[in-house]
């Protein structure tokens, strides 16, 4: 856990809560450097409070007055259920247990999207000649990770409104005979519903490998041993990028193609002419390595292809983009709750 010297004023707690990792940081009301920060493996803890309470107790920073927490899941009536974790978070309960006056739960892609408005230029890898241009345009954000998140930044004439979606759970639509076979393969595993998240996620990459491996004569023992060691999906990614085993290579390629197609769908749905931001560790590794496949599928939209040819697309390489967005929102909340300074009375 990283710490800096204690600040006098109340701090701001920001968090990015995902199915794999939970990142927490305490900032002062104006500075950009964290007073304290830590990353936790989400599945190793029974609840968010099990992470947050010790983090706050051990920190040298002042206790926060405001907290903004990005959550990977839908939020209804100020209550969030994390899609890939058995956690339930409620603003009122957290405020009482953590002794923080104002807590806001926000969709993780909402804070990620907001963070896209604050990232440095060097943290963007363009996939097109032009970079996303924020002012005056709608933007879209997509991120495949433990799950698939999508969000929109709608320009209202003066600023961007950051709005959540659960578009990752929309029906997966096959675009070819191979993808139709993939859908059938996934439907046997998930008979209730085959969504884009079943394909565009860490486990989705694993499912794509299983699909192509089922067509192969056999999986070499060396590949089996490597997949059994550590993170299986990360190993599939590495083997596929190196083209060391054809089913893994085909899994990576089709993953990126479907990712590009869904990013293009999102751009059309939101009319995101200002650009599309692609977030997450998967994008940083797979999309940048197979950018031609991604963009080919992104643009393959028939009569609307000329429209998408003018849409900038970029991968965000900053792993703290969600924290940046949560911090921007937390500062706005803190400023709104700070009473204006009284003017001194005029002398007669």
Structure report:
There is one protein chain. With 348 residues, the protein is α/β, with parallel strands linked by helices. 39% of the residues lie in helices and 22% in strands. A hairpin with a 6-residue loop joins strand 3 (21-27) and strand 4 (34-41).
Summarize the structure.
By secondary structure, this protein is α/β, with parallel strands linked by helices. The chain has helices at 49-58, 91-98, 108-116, 177-189, 202-213, 221-228, 232-241, 246-270, 281-289, 291-299, 305-308, 321-337, and strands at 2-3, 11-17, 21-27, 34-41, 64-71, 75-76, 79-81, 88-90, 102-107, 124-126, 139-144, 148-155, 160-164, 275-279, 313-316.
Jot down its keywords.
globular, alpha/beta, Nucleotidyltransferase, domain 5, 39% helix, 15 strands, six-stranded mixed sheet, 348 residues
Helix % is: 25-40%
Distance between the amino and carboxyl termini: 56 Å
Oligomer: single chain
CATH class value of the largest domain: Alpha Beta
Total helical segments = 12
Blueprint of the fold:
Layout: E1 2-3, E2 11-17, E3 21-27, E4 34-41, H1 49-58, E5 64-71, E6 75-76, E7 79-81, E8 88-90, H2 91-98, E9 102-107, H3 108-116, E10 124-126, E11 139-144, E12 148-155, E13 160-164, H4 177-189, H5 202-213, H6 221-228, H7 232-241, H8 246-270, E14 275-279, H9 281-289, H10 291-299, H11 305-308, E15 313-316, H12 321-337
Parallel strand pairs: 2-5, 5-9, 11-14, 14-15
Antiparallel strand pairs: 1-4, 2-3, 3-4, 6-7, 7-8, 10-15, 11-12, 12-13
Helix pairs in contact: 3-12, 5-7, 5-8, 6-7, 7-8, 8-10
């Amino acid at each position: 856990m990283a710490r800096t010297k204690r600040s006098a004023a109340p701090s701001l707690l920001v968090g990015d809560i995902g199915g794999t990792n939970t990142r927490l940081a305490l900032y002062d009301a104006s500075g950009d450097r964290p007073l304290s920060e830590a990353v936790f493996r989400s599945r190793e803890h029974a609840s968010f409070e099990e992470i947050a309470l010790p983090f706050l107790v051990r920190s040298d920073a002042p206790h926060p007055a405001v907290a903004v927490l990005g959550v990977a899941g839908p939020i209804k009536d100020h209550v969030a259920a994390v899609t890939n974790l058995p956690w339930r978070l409620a603003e009122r309960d957290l405020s009482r247990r953590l002794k923080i006056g104002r807590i806001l739960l926000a969709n993780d892609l909402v804070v990620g999207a907001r963070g896209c408005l604050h990232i440095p230029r060097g943290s963007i890898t363009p996939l097109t000649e032009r970079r996303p241009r924020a002012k005056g345009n709608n933007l879209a954000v997509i991120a495949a990770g433990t799950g698939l998140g999508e969000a929109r930044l709608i320009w209202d004439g003066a600023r961007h409104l950051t709005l959540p979606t659960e578009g990752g759970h929309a029906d997966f639509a096959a675009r070819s005979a191979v993808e139709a076979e993939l859908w059938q393969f996934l439907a046997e595993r998930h008979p209730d519903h085959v969504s884009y998240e079943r394909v565009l996620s860490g486990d989705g990459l694993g499912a794509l490998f299983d699909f192509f491996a089922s067509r192969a004569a056999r999986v070499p023992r060396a590949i089996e041993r490597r997949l059994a060691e550590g993170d299986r999906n990360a190993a599939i990614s590495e083997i596929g990028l190196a083209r060391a085993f054809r089913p893994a290579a085909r899994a990576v390629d089709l993953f990126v193609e479907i990712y590009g197609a869904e990013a293009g769908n999102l751009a059309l749905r939101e009319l995101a002419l200002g650009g599309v931001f692609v977030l997450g560790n998967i994008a940083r590794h797979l999309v940048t390595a197979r950018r031609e496949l991604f963009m080919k599928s992104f643009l393959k939209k028939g009569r609307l292809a000329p429209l998408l040819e003018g849409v900038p697309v970029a991968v965000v390489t900053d792993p703290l983009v969600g924290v940046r967005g949560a911090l921007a929102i937390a500062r706005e909340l803190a400023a709104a709750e700070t009473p204006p300074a009284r003017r001194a009375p005029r002398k007669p």
